[in-house]
Amino acid sequence: MNPDEKSKIIQNLTYLKERLVELDPIIDRLIENDVFRFHHRAQIEQISKPTPHRQFNEFIKILTSSGNRDAYSTFIEALKTEGYTPIAQKLQKTAPKDFVVRSGSRLANRINSASTSAGRKTNYEPVVPVQVAIPDDAGAASLPVARSDGCTDCSSTVKAVLEAFGRNQEHVLENIERQRREDRQEMEKQRQKDKQEYQQQMLHLFGKCQAEKHDIIKQTETSLEKLQEEIDHVRKVNVEYSFLKEQYDYLREKQQGMREKDNERRERLLQLTKEKEEGKRENQKLETKIEHLETKLQMSEDTREDIENKQYESNKYIERLESEKDDLMKQLREKEQENKSLRDRVDDQYVQITDLLQKQRDHEERHEDPEFSQTREQQIRKLDMIYGMMQSISKEKTASVPPGKLEFRPKKMIIGTNLAKATLADRRKMRTDRFDS
């Protein structure tokens, strides 16, 4: 393939890629016309990471690098045969000017080219006058004869020209026929040579095809053997698969049961764990309460010991107080005896003083003596002072004696000028009130 054809294919590469969908029929046609080989198909199909885009690029690469000079025309014929006529027309429009699609034989192309060139020269090239050489034997008859009227007779000249043109035409036809015979001989030789080359190529191709066929048969037999082995292996695998599937189903059912039991056990364990956690929390609460109670108990023990100690001390103190009380009661009884004797004495003296005062009153009524009255007033003040002292002593004793034991009541004494008003019954009552305790 020449550079112009390659450039035209490259120019229409996008157009081809968009519309050329199936490459297998085109590749088959190219293999039949000896443009491609079988390994080219394998090269296209076995490209790394096969995609339609990469396979198309590999196809174009092999086509443009083909050493066959008819690769381009064969490709166009294959496109037309497989129904890709618009693609072929597109390529023909962009093909080189001197390119002609291959017809039945090369001779027809060459003859058509020659006839076309000759026709073009006849129609468009100017006619050049031919100077015909007059032969020597023509004589005077062949020369133009002058007429009397001054015009030259041209009939003989025209006749001579026509005869010369006929001879030249015959010469040209002979040359053309000789050239045709030479061309036919050359074409026959070329055809025989091409035929021999074609036969050699066909023999080579046949031998190669036979070798490839033998290889294909051998590969097919090997593939069949491998396929049979694969089938046997698949059958064996199917048997093993069935056995393993049964075991799998059995184990799955068993695992399902174990999973259910495990779930139940896990639920029970979770429940027990929850109860255990609750028990732990309750235990912690109880331990806290126990610690609190132990603390309280310890405090109570300490308090009880303190109370016992205090109670012991209190008992000892009470015993001491009881002893002191007994002593005091004994002393009190003695003092009461003394007090009683003193009261008796005071009572006696009181009676005596009362009698004396009555006598003094009677004497004062009988005798108006200022000195006596003054003396009596002094005695009354002294007596009042003595009774005041007695009353204060009686109050002090009453405060020192426990309640309910001894009570001193104040005396109701009438001293001075009012003494006469007091009767004897009143004096007895006063005496009784003072000493009733």
From TrEMBL:
CARD domain segment(s): 1-94
This protein's record includes keyword Coiled coil: yes
UniProtKB keywords: Coiled coil
Coiled-coil positions: 173-237, 269-352
InterPro entries, per the entry: CARD, DEATH-like_dom_sf
Annotated PROSITE patterns: CARD (PS50209)
Domain of life the protein comes from: Eukaryota
Keyword Coiled coil among record annotations: yes
Gene Ontology terms describing biological process: regulation of apoptotic process
Protein name as it appears in the record: CARD domain-containing protein
Protein's organism: Mizuhopecten yessoensis
